[in-house]
Amino acid sequence: MSTELRTAPRRPAELETALWEAVFAGDEYAATSLVQRALDDGVDPESVLLDVIAPVQFKVGEEWAANRMTVAQEHAATAINDRAVAALSLHPAARTAAERGRITVACVDGEWHALPARLLAEVLRLRGWHVDYLGAQVPVPHLIAHLHRTGPELVALSSSIATRLPTAHATITACQAVGVPVVVGGAAFGPGGRYAELLGADAWAADARSAADRIQRAPLARPEPGHQPIDDLPHLDDQEYTMVTRSRTSLVRAVMHGLDDAFPAMRQYNDLQRERTAEDVAHIVDFLATALYLDDADLFTGFIAWTAGILAARGVPAYSLPPALGLLAGELKDFPRATRLLLLGSDRLAGPSIPSAPSASARNQP
To answer: CA 308 → CA 104, 151, 320, distances in Å?
Structure first.
């Protein structure tokens, strides 16, 4: 049954509530109709994107993190929100002549969360920019080939997952090497965009509205060629990041083998439970490697706390995590930075409280 309302709300808060009901119910028709009627009634298209659709997507992430939505429901809800954006983009109220310059909007290679970038692309179009929206996980060579062919004024690069930051760094550097400045956004770049400057981005924005404002306010200077990633992160000379990344498979295997003794309850796990545990261990290794890349302990300890919250929301005791961290520390005993991060992660778990799991999505992120 459709969740469509007979009388369409007009205020953003009311629209958000109505759209959430449609999205949660899996009612694509009601969701897209709601957006179209709001535009028919004169609601500003940018407000629909950023004050209605984006907050609903943020709530989708919160509900998944709290285990009130399954992965399948989260994917379905995201797909419906994407269809709502498409419905908006085709409405006469959203048709704006491209009178400004050309901008490329893309996600970092390996980044599947494309909706934040899509929101930014539509906002920029509404403001009169010629936008090339390339979507999710764009490989660096293809992105650079596109820049050579189209010559945009800048690239807007999005990433929601911190483990994609090394790839984001390579992408930023490659774009700048061909003379194209880069503005970045998304949850991956940390609170206040702390990793954007570290990785040499030309600008950072907290959300799609501020990204569009920053782009519109003043042009970004063309970057100087010859910059290399190692110039930003001299600590990479110790090779710890490289060695952990190359050893990922063997590290996961060693931890899984050791957990049978260090965490006896795992001996009773079925195949599916063991597979999920291996995935968790692999994520720990990935975040450890990223923290080594950035030389940032908070990224790793924050992820460990987040993981504990996610497990708790699913009824899985967090006491399965310290043995895994201890086993990893044993495998990496010759790597001082890695060992320190793992000890800090264990200390975080031993603290008085673990904060609730943060959202898997970021509000209005470019």
So the answer is: 37, 45, 9
How many Cβ atoms from other residues are within 10 Å of residue 46's Cβ? 18
121 CB-side CA count, 13 A: 23
Residue with tokens 């044993």: 330
- Write out pLDDT tens, residues 220-250: 988 877 777 767 898 999 999 999 999 999 9
Q: Which of these, 81, 75, 113, 62, lies nearest to 15 by C-alpha position?
A: 81
The C-alpha atoms of residue 276 and residue 280 are separated, in whole angstroms, by: 6
User: How far from 339 is each of 179, 255, 301, 325, CA to CA, in Å?
Assistant: 39, 15, 13, 9
pTM of the shown model: 0.88
Tokens of 137: 């996980």
Secondary element (H or E) of residue 120: helix 115-126
List for the chain the helix, strand, coil content (%; round to 5): 65, 5, 30
The sign of the dihedral angle between the CA atoms of 15, 111, 224, 296 is: positive
C-alpha span between 352 and 342 (Å, rounded): 18
Query: CA-CA distance, 92 to 36, in Å (whole number)?
Result: 10
Two tokens at 7? 């009388």
Residue 303, classed as helix, strand or coil, is: helix
Rounded Cα distance, 201 and 310, in Å: 31
CA-wise closest residue to 117 among 239, 208, 26: 208
